[in-house]
Amino acid sequence: QVHLVESGGGLVQAGGSLSLSCAFSGDTGCMSDMNWYRQAQGKGRELVATVFTSGITDYADSVKGRATISKDNVQKTLSLQMNSLKPEDTAVYFCTTSVYDYWGQGTQVTVSS
User: Fold this and answer.
1) Distance separating alpha carbons of residues 24 and 1, to the nearest angstrom
2) CA 66/CA 62 separation, integer angstroms
3) Is the dihedral of CA 6, 7, 13, 17 positive or negative?
4) Measured between alpha carbons, how far apart are the two ends of the chain, in Å?
5) Please, which residues have CB within 8 angstroms of residue 28's CB and are 6 or more apart in sequence?
6) pLDDT for res 28
7) Which of 25, 40, 83, 106, by CA, is between 20 and 30 Å from 89?
8) What are the angstrom distances between the C-alpha of 28 and each of 24, 25, 87?
9) Where is 111: in which H helix or E strand?
10) What is the pLDDT of residue 29?
11) Contact (CB, 8 A) for 43 and 88
């Protein structure tokens, strides 16, 4: 069993920054590769960023150059730093595991123009 709790969302003006955090606990065997997804209202889920066990990271083209994903296995946190935010970044952001596909409850990010 895995428990994921996101935090750090909020309202920010376009051009601003936000740092999202996900505290994870439980079966650490499931927490090898981890991801941030987002879902805007009325749209499907979008994979935003992945951090692999190797430390390699991957980003959606829509956030490449503006986002940084990182994982701290000691503090058991997954983070997503987003800069130069745009209104189209408005969505609920979810922390997930690649193994067994666990999801947190999400945190809302709203970017005003």
Assistant:
1) 11
2) 9
3) negative
4) 40
5) 73
6) 73
7) 25
8) 9, 7, 35
9) strand 107-112
10) 73
11) no
